[in-house]
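Below sits the subject:

***
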Amino acid sequence: MFVSRAQGVLLLAGYITYMVMGAFVFELLENDHHKRIEEAIFHMKEEFFSNYTALSPEEVEVFIQRLVRAVHMGIDPVGTHPHDKQRSSWDFTNSFFFVGTMLATIGYGNLCPQTKEGQIFCVIFALFGIPFCLLCLNYIGFLVSGVFESCAEKVHGKENKNSARYFILFVAMGIIVFLILPSFLFQWVEDWSYYEAIYFTFITLSTIGFGDYLIGKKQDRTYFPGYRLLSAIWIIIGLAWIAVLFELVSSFLAPVDPKASSQKDSKG
């Protein structure tokens, strides 16, 4: 599908607007409800610690189950009170990041709508948003491919996209730009080992999204402004590179049609 530059700009602007509107709606539907549950969990913890010696094993088991359920809802129950009332799990920044990972089908699973309205809106929003996201990734992939083609032309001269040399260069440049270099940033900001950072970048860009490693969630670390926004941009462009890579692999490994090749020979 050919998209002109003007159409591409409108497409990206529409997608960003769609994500911003979705983030506002999720914040509106989920934020207050999440805060109430969070306060209830910490109140439950306070009661447990003041009376845990008198509890039966069954009551302790119930407490553990509620605590595990809270963690699955994206609540960090460590401490004696909510860590930062100014930075909720469903503020605009986190809602925007949630929308981006949802539409990209990564789905970390650490945060999900809990209200009936939020879950219904999530279904409707994703139903239209995921195809919209795929269109945008297709266009961004076209731009990324154009940049890599220019680099390949400077290195090796004009190359056919189906050539092995172009494919190797495309893979190598993508690994450096979208896996190796971002991993250094995540290693530094999140205080991970480098292998953990590489693991996170691959699991994210492959859309596996286990959710065992997450960014911007440590309460004992200070993150620079725009960190999650920068990460969201990396995810979108990286997914576009992955999409083009899969297309290249398919075309590179596709069997040659003997009829088509014979027709070309006859024309030659």
